[in-house]
């Protein structure tokens, strides 16, 4: 009987830890003060430049977006779910074997 309660406690702790670490954290901030008015001025101008080198200009690759890490986040959540399912399967299998004995 003590073994079952201990296993339940371990499973509950693992479920709690999984849910605590898998949830996203959001931060909110308040503005202190407000908009500041200035009497500044923005001006644009172009400088005339001449190319002195005969080398062709290097073109940047197009069509790729920067990586945001979302794939890693989703895969970590999936790994956590798989581990949880594996633990539940092993717990159920061991419990079934104990009942058969």
TrEMBL record:
Residues 65-101 form the Gram-positive cocci surface proteins LPxTG domain. Keywords: Cell wall, Membrane, Peptidoglycan-anchor, Secreted, Signal, Transmembrane, Transmembrane helix. The chain crosses the membrane at residues 71-92. InterPro entries: LPXTG_anchor. It holds the Pfam family Gram_pos_anchor. Residues 1-29 form the signal peptide. The keyword Signal applies. The keyword Transmembrane helix applies. This is Gram-positive cocci surface proteins LPxTG domain-containing protein. It comes from Enterococcus rivorum.
